[in-house]
């Protein structure tokens, strides 16, 4: 996927200065990850951070019924993962490469040393952590506060911000999502997504062109999820 496939989405490392990024890359190792291979599993010890150098990664979690709930997509120059310097920490998520990817790896000991030696990196890292907490909080708000209607509406808006292009006044989501993929993003069944999409189409909020979803009524979708007008750095997949 090229950057032109997305509509004004900011990478989550925009907080890091060029100097910080250069210093981080000096301690980075790289790994090639094939499509559908796992980077880490829910429950694995978390003592690393990762950055997508090429490709695409999805972060997911299993619910109590064993169904997959997709939380985030990560693209080139997006940072993901976490570690706790005070105690051993297990991952709450599973990370999987969606396509053949190149991943940068930062080991916790190396990164902590870098932070101690460079205040700017430490400040930028704190800003990134704050951003990711807000990112996750708004995702949880979308999934839990306004029913499945609101959750799907918010997901379509996020998808439009992430993969959308404007064409003759229409906002087309260039990635062709299956209803099963949308169900994993919303945390519901494929049948529920089928029903809700049909309802949205009847209300002329969306339509389909060559298998792609086109958003016709952005305001209508925003009303369903009670949109708080988050910046696209937050309102993305």
TrEMBL record:
Domain (Cyclic nucleotide-binding) ranges: 23-121
Keyword annotations from UniProtKB, A to Z: Activator, DNA-binding, Transcription, Transcription regulation
GO cellular component terms, semicolon-separated: cytosol
GO function terms (MF aspect): DNA binding; DNA-binding transcription factor activity
SUPFAM superfamilies per record: cAMP-binding domain-like (SSF51206), Winged helix' DNA-binding domain (SSF46785)
Residues in HTH crp-type domain copies: 146-219
Pfam families, sorted: cNMP_binding, HTH_Crp_2
InterPro entries according to UniProt: cNMP-bd_dom (IPR000595), cNMP-bd_dom_sf (IPR018490), Env_Response_Regulators (IPR050397), HTH_CRP (IPR012318), RmlC-like_jellyroll (IPR014710), WH-like_DNA-bd_sf (IPR036388), WH_DNA-bd_sf (IPR036390)
SMART domains per record: cNMP, HTH_CRP
The protein's name in its UniProt record: Crp/Fnr family transcriptional regulator
């Amino acid at each position: 996927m090229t950057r032109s496939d997305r509509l004004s989405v900011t990478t989550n490392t925009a907080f890091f200065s060029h100097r910080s990024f250069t210093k981080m890359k000096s301690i980075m190792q790289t790994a090639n990850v094939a499509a559908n291979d796992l980077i880490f599993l829910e429950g694995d010890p978390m003592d690393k951070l990762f950055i997508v150098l090429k490709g695409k990664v999805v972060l997911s979690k299993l619910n109590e019924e064993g169904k997959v709930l997709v939380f985030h997509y990560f693209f080139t120059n997006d940072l993901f993962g976490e570690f706790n310097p005070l105690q051993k920490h297990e991952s709450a998520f599973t990370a999987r490469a969606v396509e053949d990817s190149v991943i940068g790896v930062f080991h916790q000991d190396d990164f902590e040393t870098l932070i101690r030696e460079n205040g700017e990196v430490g400040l930028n890292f704190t800003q990134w952590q704050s951003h990711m907490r807000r990112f996750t909080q708004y995702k949880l708000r979308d999934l839990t506060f306004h029913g499945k209607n609101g959750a799907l509406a918010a997901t379509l808006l996020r998808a439009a911000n992430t993969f959308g292009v404007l064409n003759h006044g229409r906002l087309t989501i260039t990635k062709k999502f299956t209803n099963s993929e949308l169900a994993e993003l919303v945390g519901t069944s494929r049948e529920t997504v089928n029903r809700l999409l049909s309802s949205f189409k009847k209300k002329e909020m969306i339509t389909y062109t060559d298998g792609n979803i086109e958003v016709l009524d952005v305001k209508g979708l925003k009303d369903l999820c009670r949109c708080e007008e988050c910046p696209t750095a937050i309102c993305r997949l």
